[in-house]
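Let's practice the habit of predicting before peeking. Look at the sequence and jot down your guess about where helices and strands might fall. Then scroll down.
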Amino acid sequence: MNKKGTKHRLDGQTLRQLQNLLVQHAGKDNPITSTEIAEKLDINDGEANPKTRSYIRFLIKHTYLPIGATSNGYYLIQDGVELDLYIGELNRRIAGIESRISSVRFNYDKTNLTERD
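Done guessing? Here is the structure:
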């Protein structure tokens, strides 16, 4: 990681272009995919768009843009309803991860009892 907190170098021009592009995609019903972002900003990225996703995470952490995401892409959160919906989705994802952690620990404990005895 560089000192800006992203694995990929994000120059000022790309940052401004990305911000301007996201401003054009306000509202959950108007998302833009990471692939579309990479194409529009000429970001040389892999199939899963790791640079583009890293840049978006940087914006979320270091700017005042309220960026939301769905399986359809990224968007600027327009109002309190969208904010609440997005936070609810994040909390459901957290709960799902915590449940998997618990299951993996439980399964490990059940299958590795002899190591502890």
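How did you do? The mean pLDDT is 89.
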